[in-house]
Write a structure and sequence with these properties.
The protein is built from five helices and ten strands, in the order βαβββαβββαββααβ. By secondary structure, it is an alpha+beta fold. Strand 8 and strand 9 form a beta hairpin. The protein is globular.
C-alpha cells in the first residue's frame, strides 16, 4: 500500500467542477481526506485567472509512486488539459501534482526520475499546496523539508499566504466506495 498527497488546481472553465470531478474519479476507498478549497493568485505566470486549489490524501494497495503519476495525468487528460510548452506555469483546466508518497510502513518514497521527482521539488515553496495540506493533516511533514506548520511560516511562503482566500462556499465531497 502507498499513501500520497495530491495537489489539485484549476483556473479555466468551471474550476470547482474540475476539482470535484477529479476527486470523484479517484477510487472511492483511496480518498481519505480532501481539504477545503482556496482561491489563489497564479504562481509563476501572473497573466491568467486565479486558481482554485485543494489537496487530497489518498491511499491504495495497488498504486505505487509512478501509478499516482499516471492517475494524475489521467485526471488532467479527462479534464481536457492542454500543455503549452511556452507557458510552463500557464492556465489549465486541471493540474494534479503528486507531492509526496509513503510506503505502508510510513517510509517516504524518494524518486528522482525524468518523469517524477518525489517529494515534489517545489512543494515547500508553495502556499497553495502547504496551506490546504495543513488543513487535512495538521501534523504532516513534507519529507526532506520538515513540518508543514513550520514550512508555511518560512519567508519564501509567508508572502504568498496572504493571497490565499478560503472558499467555504465550495465543497468537495468524498464519494463512498
Amino acid at each position: 500500500m502507498t499513501r500520497a498527497v495530491l495537489s489539485l488546481g484549476s483556473n479555466l472553465g468551471d474550476r470547482a467542477a474540475h476539482l470535484r470531478t477529479a476527486v470523484a474519479a479517484l477510487p472511492g476507498a483511496a480518498v481519505s481526506a480532501v481539504s477545503g478549497v482556496y482561491e489563489t493568485p497564479p504562481w509563476g505566470d501572473p497573466d491568467q485567472p486565479d486558481y482554485l486549489n485543494a489537496v487530497a490524501l489518498v491511499d491504495d494497495d495497488k498504486t505505487d509512486a509512478h501509478g499516482w503519476l499516471r492517475v494524475a495525468q489521467q485526471l488532467e487528460n479527462a479534464a481536457g488539459r492542454e500543455r503549452d510548452p511556452a507557458r510552463r506555469f500557464g492556465p489549465r483546466t486541471l493540474d494534479v501534482d503528486v507531492i509526496a508518497v509513503w510506503a505502508d510502513d510510513g517510509t517516504p518514497l524518494i524518486v528522482d526520475d525524468p518523469d517524477l521527482t518525489l517529494p515534489h521539488p517545489r512543494a515547500h515553496l508553495r502556499a497553495f499546496v502547504l496551506r490546504p495540506w495543513l488543513y487535512v493533516q495538521p501534523y504532516g511533514q513534507l519529507p526532506g523539508h520538515g513540518w508543514l506548520h513550520d514550512l508555511v511560516r518560512a519567508d519564501a511562503v509567508v508572502g504568498d499566504l496572504a493571497g490565499l482566500r478560503p472558499r467555504e462556499d465550495i465543497k468537495i465531497d468524498i464519494l463512498e466506495p
